[in-house]
Design brief:
The structure holds two protein chains of two kinds.
Chain A (H helix, E strand, L loop, with lengths): L10 H6 L18 H11 L3 H13 L2 H10 L8 E5 L6 H14 L4 E7 L8 E3 L14 E7 L11 H10 L4 E5 L10 H4 L2 E6 L4 H7 L3 H4 L2 E4 L7 H13 L10 E3 L8 H18 L1 H30 L3 H9 L5 H16 L1
Parallel strand pairs in A: 1-5, 1-6, 2-4, 2-5, 6-7, 7-8
Helix pairs in contact in A: 2-3, 3-4, 3-6, 5-11
Chain B lengths: L5 E7 L6 H12 L3 E9 L1 H10 L4 E6 L4 H14 L6 E6 L3 H10 L4 E2 L5 H21 L1
Parallel strand pairs in B: 1-2, 1-3, 3-4, 4-5
Helix pairs in contact in B: 1-5, 2-3
The chains are: A alpha/beta, B alpha/beta.
Chain lengths: 349, 139
């Protein structure tokens, strides 16, 4: 199938997609780039920020064009560090991200930031306010900041956040920072999107910590108590350390750091600890494991999406009937799901 | 799926009166738009660069400081310099009719005075975005 000489293959398609991997099959012709996208990609590769922003929109909006873009950019991804910043609302995540960006800019690195805020489930709208804390970075051409709305995703990131980060890396950003929505317990997409997860809390986060224990605390590679000029800081540090002490020994021990991010205090130490974590990941082979897990999670997510889409297309007509039966007490949701699945598989066969 | 509308809402100038900008941001959100809110004391460069990086359809600018005859043309210039001349620049504040007409002649979109309803603003951004998208597709 993967034969360049196959006359069924439009030549321009082979050239537009990565010429090295030849991983297209003729059945996937629809993922080729259209002319407008091809032009946009060329402008992007020349370093144009407007083109980068537009490609991000294409990727964010999904569909075959998004896939074509990602396919074309995939060979440009080289493993730039991806750092997640997460934690309860109002603890200063954006301010810490701002300080971390400054740190890396001071060392001459190009930085990409993706900041996620929630979409209203009622209106589909969103106010994305993370830039308020990063205002001074707006005119630094070595920094590219993109705000994203979750658009219905519940894991603390948008469904396409990883892909948007891919575009920023392909654009040449050397370190990628991902800021999640203000989270509590179950929003742990960040663990599969980042190499290093920084969990930020404030001295007032006591109740939030209780809720986090089962979730975020377990994915934290670094804990930061921000707003450390407020009372309660040392108690919070002790509480976090006590919690960490109950973890099984061996491997990486997440350090607990204190910052006043608004004044840049302690933030260089956070950047240094992120660096140490990355060294640990490389030395121990865990980086490979994480990236392996990420690749797997990505494939599974895409599969789930596609499968659901397909199931939905096939079964949309039959669903109301089963809903009525369940409503009337003639079937349970389980028998309904089983019957629908059987019908789907039969159709597909 | 119909692509959602993204709007950057910013407050230019040195005064910190951001109430109007916040009300508008909220109304646009409630109308289903994604609103990037950048806060107060934004320079034209900051606004234009953020608008480009965020790939917005429109920039809504609140100018209450009396500097509108400087701010709007400068944002327009900065947008154009970054290849974002097609982004709708609209906004509001205490702007007299004559100044509004002059700014619109420069290519600024409709501007809204103190009495405007959020409904009008939402409708305008929706209609204008649809018009511009249709235009860019036929180009």
């Amino acid at each position: 199938m993967n034969d360049d000489n196959d006359p069924a293959w439009p030549v321009e398609l082979i050239n537009l997609n990565c010429p090295n991997c030849r991983c297209l099959t003729s059945g996937e012709r629809e993922i080729g780039l259209d002319t407008a996208l091809d032009t946009l990609l060329g402008t992007f590769l020349s370093g144009d920020r407007r083109a980068a922003a537009r490609l991000i929109s294409v990727v964010e909006n999904g569909g075959p064009r998004a896939e074509a873009v990602l396919h074309a950019l995939y060979p440009r991804l080289g493993g730039a560090p991806r750092v997640g910043v997460t934690g309860p609302p109002g603890v200063g995540k954006s301010t810490l991200v701002d300080a971390l960006v400054r740190h890396h800019r001071g060392q001459g690195r190009r930085v990409g930031v993706v900041a996620v805020d929630p979409t209203s489930p009622f209106t589909g709208g969103a106010v994305l306010g993370d830039r308020v804390r990063m205002s001074d970075l707006a005119t630094d051409l070595g920094v590219f900041i993109r705000s994203m709305a979750t658009r219905g995703s519940l894991g603390g990131l948008a469904r396409t956040t990883k892909e948007v980060v891919d575009v920023l890396e392909a654009f040449g950003q050397e370190i990628l920072l991902i800021e999640t929505v203000g989270v509590g317990q179950t929003e742990m997409d960040i663990a599969s999107a980042a190499d290093t997860v920084v969990v930020v809390v404030s001295p007032e986060s006591g109740d939030a910590i209780q809720a986090m224990k089962a979730g975020l605390m377990e994915v934290a590679d670094l804990l930061v108590v921000n707003k450390a000029d407020r009372p309660g800081t040392s108690q919070m540090v002790r509480a976090l350390e006590a919690d960490l002490a109950m973890r099984p020994a061996g491997g990486w021990r997440p350090p607990v750091l204190v910052t006043v991010a608004s004044r840049g205090e302690g933030t260089d130490e956070v950047a240094a600890a992120v660096g140490r974590h990355r060294e640990h990941l490389s030395a121990s082979g865990a980086l490979g494991e994480r990236r392996h897990a990420r690749a797997r999670a990505e494939i599974v997510a895409i599969l789930r999406d596609r499968l659901w889409q397909r199931v939905h297309e096939r079964l949309a007509d039959r669903l109301p009937d089963w809903v009525a039966r369940v409503e009337a007490g003639h079937a349970t949701p389980y028998t309904a799901a089983r019957a629908l699945l059987a019908a789907f598989l039969e159709d597909e066969a | 799926m119909e692509r959602g509308i993204r709007v950057l809402v910013a407050k230019a100038g040195l005064d910190g009166h951001d109430r109007g900008a916040k009300v508008v941001a909220r109304a646009l959100r409630d109308a289903g738009m994604e609103v990037i809110y950048t806060g107060v004391r934004q320079t034209p460069e900051m606004i234009a660069e953020a608008a480009v990086q965020e790939d917005v359809d429109a920039v809504g600018l609140s100018v209450l400081s009396g500097a509108h005859m400087h701010v709007f043309p400068e944002v327009l210039r900065q947008l154009t310099a970054r290849g974002g001349g097609d982004i709708l620049l609209t906004g509001g504040g205490t702007i007299g009719d004559e100044d509004m007409a002059e700014l619109q002649a420069l290519g600024v979109g409709r501007l809204f005075g103190p009495g405007a309803s959020t409904r009008e603003i939402v409708d305008y951004i929706r209609a204008e975005t649809a018009r511009r998208r249709a235009q860019s597709e036929t180009r």
